[in-house]
Amino acid sequence: MTENAENMDTTNGFDINTDENAAGTSHLNEPLTEESEMEKIEAELKEQKDKYLRLMAEFDNFRRRTAKERLELIQTAGKDVIVSLLDVLDDCDRAEKQLQTSDDIALQKEGIQLVFNKLRSTMQQKGVKAMESIQTDFDVEKHEAITEIPAPSDNLKGKVLDEVVKGYYLNDKLIRFAKVVVGK
Known about the structure:
Layout: H1 3-6, H2 33-75, H3 79-101, H4 105-125, E1 128-130, E2 143-149, E3 160-165, E4 168-170, E5 173-176, E6 178-183
Parallel strand pairs: 2-6
Antiparallel strand pairs: 1-4, 3-6, 4-5
């Protein structure tokens, strides 16, 4: 084989190194699949990075917004209960004023009883319910034993004989244990 035959380009049959009259741009008109695929991948990568950054920013905004809402909720959590108790407080003020001006004990008792009943009904409307403990079996899940005393009869052993502090439920969830005296 000659030297020219070794230097021949196999795609168009010309020796690109030796023939200066042969068109050397014929291979440039062919699509460059490697470069166009690379550009496509780079564009896709850029698009994915943009989506990722937007998603991260959206999540960060969501996190800040929920933290702010949570803080506001904590600060105003008892607002509706307090507002409903303001009516009871107003009744207490009126009762106090009546106590100072009137000497009729029966009228004073009736007024104070109305205030107590209003307080109980307001608390009940908000889901607070008193626990019934007296003469029930002692339950460590609901009761806190303050002391034990001898039971007056055998059927009262292990039962609650007296309630020192009432226990309460809020929407059927225990919020305060009852402090009780238990028969032994």
